What does this fold into?
Amino acid sequence: MKQDFFTYLPSEIITEILSRVPAQAILSCKCVCKRWRDLVSTQEFVKLHLSKSVPGFAHTVKMDKIIEITDDLHFSTITKLNFTLIGASAFEWIECSADGLLLLKIINGTHYGNELYVCNPITREYIDLLYPFDTSISEFVIYGFGVSKTTGLYKVVGMKINDFGRVTDCKVYTIGTGSWRTFAPVPVIYTLKSSGRFVNGSLHWVAHDSNGTMCISCFDLETELFYTFSSPFPTEFAYLNAKVIALEGCLCLCDYTYTSSDCTLNVWLMKEYGVEKSWTKEFAIQSKHIYSPIRLSKDGVILMDVKSYSPFYYSSKNKTTLKICKFVGHPYHFPVSHTPSLLSLKSFGTENSISF
It folds into this structure.
């Protein structure tokens, strides 16, 4: 191939080719020539590339890696966080992910999660959100992070709850404003230590009413209003063994039932967002392991064993599980679905974006 081959290619073709290059490799493409550097730095290209980026998940704590999962069940590390803001006794806890940005909560021996950062591990930039709550030992803060559907604003939501799961303070931070705002919560009771999952422009948490009937509490990031969905299994105290996640852009509810010898994971998908009658049970997986779904795949689902921290593939056709590989991670903390992106935090002009 002649050296000047790309020189005479139309810009549309170059854009299409580069939009399919993995995010990490795009950083090297910026060094090829000024034309490519300018192209991949535009917001239009960043959005196009994100739409074609291969989804994976983000590991936390001991690994701090961004993992890509291909359709043939191959796992590969895209990048490591290598976050150096904190001492050796502390670690990062990934709360949520949206458009390639991670919401990180810093945990150490004396302060549990009172440092918050939004980080892009691909561009290696972060923003310090300045912790806004005064919390006591009997209080906890649950978070959510996502982007509004119409205005495209990235927002972090924090809710301070007491030991009974009741909200005592609610705040929202719009990336680019540099400040938190207070708003009124919906009067439901939340499950402690849960993270809001981002689907269809809203954040979602497992909650319940005063009678113990489970529901899903939702926060619309555009209107900044709460609403609720009923559970597909509205039995009393069902919230104790349930969690909400996002699977391939769908709202997913996981229900765990236990016996003395095994556990059954029921995976429900809301096939049409906002239509409660569209709740469908996709899988009922019985095993001695406790699994958490992390991605739907062809004819099955990829699961994470929360004790051994090993990923498994479950075949819906054969009703069998196959161990894929093993990671060294933190038990009982689930991976976060994550799609690598080139979105630079420097594009949020008023924020103090720091490189690492």
The mean pLDDT is 81. The helical segments are 11-18, 23-29, 34-40, 43-52.
